[in-house]
Design a protein that fits this description.
Strand content: over 45%
CATH superfamily of the largest domain: TonB-dependent receptor, beta-barrel domain
Low-confidence stretches: 5-37, 115-133
CATH topology of the largest domain: Maltoporin, Chain A
CATH architecture of the largest domain: Beta Barrel
Number of helices: 8
Structural class: mainly beta
Number of strands: 44
Helix content: under 10%
Radius of gyration: 27 Å
Largest sheet: 22 strands, antiparallel, barrel
Number of domains: 3
Mean pLDDT: 85
Shape: globular
Length: 811
């Protein structure tokens, strides 16, 4: 027998994510007498299992003993991320038929597993392990609030503590504890993010800048939409202009939702939620292998929601379906395909107007709606995904991703605009829109490689992406409907006219190539350098007669632009728990909405950012934090000069500076925390058109903070299974419009949680109850940021005291 022995240090903290490793985990716990190891970063490519174990032993300080014959012909899918050494070993050995045990003096023996997983389940008595198990990030039972690595900031799996940029992650565990059923519910856990305009669509302000409805899904941009969260694994916010990797983007930051992926371990969940204002919501999640070896796996998510609102006339009815398949024909090659279907029927919320000369929205009962019972909207979309990757060897890998978003929407609404002299009656105008096509096509190709040159470790990235967004719509605005008394509004007695009077076409596309090198010197100094060149074009056409007339102007009213955008970042990991970082980034921003006074698209925005800060990891990586100082400058901002203007004007330059602090993770095995604070100073510093110099940005509070904490009573025999949580959100006063003519007052809300989980055989049942805005504070969640119109509509009252209960079954 030939033994392979690798030198190393004492073992670290064990992970028990898979039942097949339960016996070895118990042995390890009993032998090491409570010793724990710290998380370490591993970057082991796919390849032979023997090579992977050797690299693990060297990096993790483990002494492994095994017969080399038992690893012959076995492969590893690699390991990327931050783990304790034993958690890393568990992951490498998963599905290999091998297990490990500690024999003393820090030596670990690897051997063939005596029993298969199903045999263990049949023969093992129930076992309770004290302490908190380490789970993989995508494990449905993972309750940790801390996320240690992500690919969003660099498109490579890089630990957050080694990434020279501010990126915040809200994992599924937080969304579940808070019963967050919208992106707005989840993103309040990230500093510097504020809901803007109506919650009917997902639009946010990040670091003071409006994101213009751009939300990303698995790193690919999608149109403004109200996204479903049933298949969301986590939400990520990359702060600052991230255009080097994702194309044209707003300078405040990028919001991306990462969806759930098929798992090779079976998991099933069914949840029924019910809440205030007649809310009923059912979700289902099923995943697992379709073949014995787990090479083919599936996932299926379903959601149905029906609710009224605390606002008169408002409602939503939604159906959502998302099936997926993944196939791994070899350890080096994998394919994935999936789709989503979503349909929403809903009513648009026009909010409250602001009286002439007033500096606050009008004081009306919170349920008062100034639209009309005839108002109705719907949206429908299909999403198709395809992705694949192949590792040529242990160091080089290529991947490609394609997504198509095919949708349309309709809106018919009466909105208030303009008070009468008595300041009681307000005129209402009709807005009707039929988006026949709202289609986005996107793909990207990335080549990632690892090199060592004279002691310097390189992670290289070379890529290309393409994005195309086409819309075709018929719309009409803005005919006078009637006048209503805001204290006693009456329905419009006739029928709304629906004949269109505008035909519109828009076509936007870009190609981009980019490169990046992440260099590591002496395992402490990390330098990131890269750049991107964009070729972008935008065309828009309109006609009052037909689409053929719109096509003629579409060909005439185009604008093309190219730009090189550099990105540089430096990070020094001074201590295992502390990093200091700085970065400089330029970007070619999103196209300005609308057209200029000449009928052509306005020149795109550009931005630069300077950022620096500190990152920490405590308690073996279970609690992390980021403190960031930033300055972002944006040029060529476009603003509508008046409510009914059919064009926009570039006003000049604006700047946002501030400080952001984000903390997330576990204070103890049972005590979870996620918190943030943002100090954001915004100012228009140049204005050549509308006399806005010195004004603050709308919807950008100077101070905002959020705290959520939860305690699980796992150590108390009488209270085991009980969880209690509470949270607070504080937002200071915000400007309501670019002219700073009125303000939305600051507010404070308080939320709470109580949940109880127990097992019936292999089934886990959880009953949960959440309360929101317990003090029933009156506040405004946001205001439309596009133009001066929000004096008359778009100022949305926040929800009063409300409740949500749920029952979830998992097995």
């Amino acid at each position: 027998m030939t033994l392979n022995t690798t030198p190393g240090g004492s073992p670290g903290r064990s992970a028990a994510a898979a039942l097949s490793l339960a016996l070895s985990t118990l042995l390890l716990f009993s032998a090491r007498a409570g010793a724990e190891g710290a998380n370490r970063q591993f970057d082991i490519p796919a390849g032979s299992l023997a090579t992977a174990l050797n690299r693990l032993a060297e990096k993790g300080g483990l002494q492994l003993v095994y017969d080399t014959g038992i690893t012959a012909g076995l492969s590893s899918q690699g390991l990327h991320g931050s783990y304790t050494p034993e958690a890393a070993l568990s992951k490498l050995l998963r599905n290999s038929g091998l297990s490990y045990r500690l024999i003393g003096n820090g030596t670990i023996v690897i051997e063939k597993a005596p029993l298969k997983v199903n045999q263990l389940m049949d023969t093992m008595p129930p076992v309770t392990v004290a302490g908190q198990a380490e789970y993989e990030a995508d494990d449905p039972y993972n309750k940790n609030y801390a996320v240690l690595d992500t690919a969003t900031a660099t498109r490579t799996d890089t630990p957050l503590i080694e990434t020279p940029a501010s990126i915040q992650v809200v994992p599924r565990s937080v969304l579940q504890d808070q019963q967050a059923i919208s992106l707005a519910d989840g993103l309040k856990n990230v500093s510097g993010v504020q809901l803007s305009t109506s919650p009917t669509y997902d639009n946010f302000v990040v670091r003071g800048f409006d994101a213009n409805g751009a939300i990303y899904r698995n790193g690919i941009r999608e149109s403004s939409w109200t996204a479903e969260t049933a298949n969301v694994e986590r939400l990520e916010v990359l702060k600052g202009p991230a255009a080097i990797l994702y194309g044209r983007i707003e300078p405040g930051g990028m919001i991306s939702r990462t969806t759930k992926k098929p798992l090779d371990t079976p998991y099933y969940s069914l949840q029924q939620q019910f809440g205030s204002f007649d809310l009923y919501r059912t979700t289902a999640d099923a995943t697992g292998p379709l073949t014995r070896d787990g090479s083919l796996a599936y996932r299926f998510n379903l959601a149905y929601q029906n609710n009224k609102s605390y606002r008169d006339l408002l409602m939503r009815d939604r159906i959502f379906i998302a099936p997926q398949l993944s196939w791994k024909p070899t350890d080096r090659t994998q394919f994935g395909i999936g789709m989503e279907y979503q349909r929403d029927d809903f009513t648009w919320d026009e909010g409250f107007p602001v009286r002439d000369g007033a500096n606050r929205p009008v004081d009306l009962p919170i349920n008062r709606a100034l639209s009309d019972p005839q108002s109705a909207s719907n949206q429908e979309r299909e999403v198709v995904d395809f992705n694949w990757s192949h590792a040529f060897n242990d160091d080089w890998k290529i991947s490609q991703q394609f997504s198509a978003f095919l949708g349309g929407r309709n809106q018919l609404d009466a909105f208030p605009f303009g008070f009468h002299p008595d300041q009681v009656f307000v005129d209402r105008y009709l807005w009707r829109l039929n988006v026949l096509d709202d289609n986005t096509y996107s793909f990207n190709t990335n080549l990632i490689g690892h090199l060592d040159t004279w002691g310097v470790k390189h992670t290289l990235l070379v890529g290309h992406d393409f994005f195309q967004h086409d819309t075709k719509s018929v719309w009409g605005c803005c005919s006078l409907v009637d006048s209503i008394d805001i204290y006693n509004p009456q329905p419009y007695p006739g029928k709304f006219p629906t004949d269109p009077n505008n035909y519109s076409l828009n076509a936007e596309s870009w190609n981009g190539v980019y490169f990046q090198d992440q260099m590591v010197f002496w395992d402490k100094l990390h330098i990131l350098g890269g750049g991107r060149y964009d070729w972008a074009s935008l065309s828009s056409g309109g006609s009052s007669q037909s689409f053929s007339g719109a096509e003629d102007t579409l060909r005439q009213n185009g604008r093309d632009q190219g730009k090189f955008s550099p990105r540089v970042g430096v990070l020094y990991r001074a201590l295992p728990w502390l990093s200091v970082y700085a970065n400089y980034t330029e970007s070619l921003g999103s196209n300005n909405f609308g057209k200029g006074i000449d009928g052509r698209p306005v020149k795109p925005q550009e931005a630069t950012q300077y950022e620096g800060g500190f990152k920490t990891e405590f308690f073996d990586g279970r609690l992390n934090s980021t403190l960031a100082f930033f300055s972002v400058t944006k040029t060529n901002i476009a603003v509508s000069p008046s409510a009914f203007a059919q064009y926009v004007i570039p006003i000049g330059k604006a700047r946002s500076t501030g400080i952001e602090l984000d903390v997330a993770g576990q204070l103890t095995d049972n005590w979870s925390l996620i918190a943030n604070y943002a100090l954001t100073n915004t100012e228009v510093i140049e204005d050549t058109a509308l006399d806005l110099k010195g004004n603050r940005f709308p919807n950008a509070p100077k101070h905002s903070s959020n705290l959520w904490t939860k305690y699980d009573f796992n150590d108390d025999p009488l209270l085991r299974g009980l969880s209690l949580g509470t949270g607070m959100r504080v937002v200071s006063q915000r400007q309501g419009d670019p002219q700073n003519s009125f303000q939305l007052p600051g507010y404070f809300t308080w939320d709470a949680l109580a949940a109880y989980s127990f097992k019936v055989g292999a089934t886990k049942l959880t009953a949960q109850f959440n309360a929101y805005n317990l003090l029933d504070k009156r506040y405004f969640s946001g205001a439309d940021t596009f133009d001066a119109s929000q004096r008359f509509y778009g100022n949305i009252p926040g929800a009063p005291r409300s409740f949500m209960g749920s029952v979830r079954v998992e097995f």
